[in-house]
Design goal:
The chain is mainly α and 163 residues long. The protein is built from 4 helices and 4 strands. It is 39% helix and 7% strand. The strands form 2 sheets. Strands 1-2 form a two-stranded antiparallel ribbon. The protein has a two-stranded antiparallel ribbon with strand order 3-4.
């Protein structure tokens, strides 16, 4: 006949919810909580640790501790290199790409930027001076108005006259 194929038996294993180790059939301890969650343990030791609320990350022999402290992984998973986005200049309606480049090169020159900045500073100074003049004019008119108003306070009595 020929060689007989060797077949391996498939064993359904489960993972411990605390240590994350494989548990083979017949070695499982299950705990069903009031809310219906099923937790599977390797041993009574693990069950006791969970009931004491001891975190798996704190114990050196658990997979959680190994993962937390970066142990056991020989393959370094390198980050994927992200592509740098390439800038593409497109023409605007009414302007060609050459016109746009010429315009932007004018704006990037130091002399043109300083001229624009000086013009903006002069405009700001002029508006500030105009505002100061307006405020001064308004305060002068309000002072004249207060001088013309007659004092209409009623005469107050002294302490002796209140009896």
């Amino acid at each position: 006949m020929g060689e007989a194929k060797r077949r391996t038996m498939v064993i359904k294993t489960e993972n411990c919810s605390y240590t994350e180790n494989k548990i083979y059939p017949g070695k499982v301890i299950r705990l069903i909580a009031k809310d219906g969650r099923i937790t599977i343990f390797t041993s009574s030791k693990v069950k006791s640790l969970i009931q004491q609320r001891i975190k798996a990350v704190k114990l050196r022999w658990t997979q959680a501790w190994r993962r937390h402290n970066k142990k056991g992984k020989t393959e370094d998973v390198s980050r994927r290199k992200t592509r740098k986005t390439q800038k593409v200049q497109r023409a605007v309606v009414g302007l060609t790409l050459d016109d746009l480049k010429a315009k932007s090169s004018v704006h990037h020159k130091k002399e043109t930027r300083s001229v624009v900045a000086d013009a903006a500073a002069a405009k700001a100074k002029a508006s500030k001076d105009a505002r100061k003049e307006r405020v001064a004019h308004q305060s002068a008119t309000t002072q004249k108005a207060t001088k013309n108003v007659v004092n209409n306070k009623p005469a107050t009595m002294s302490k002796a006259g209140r009896r």
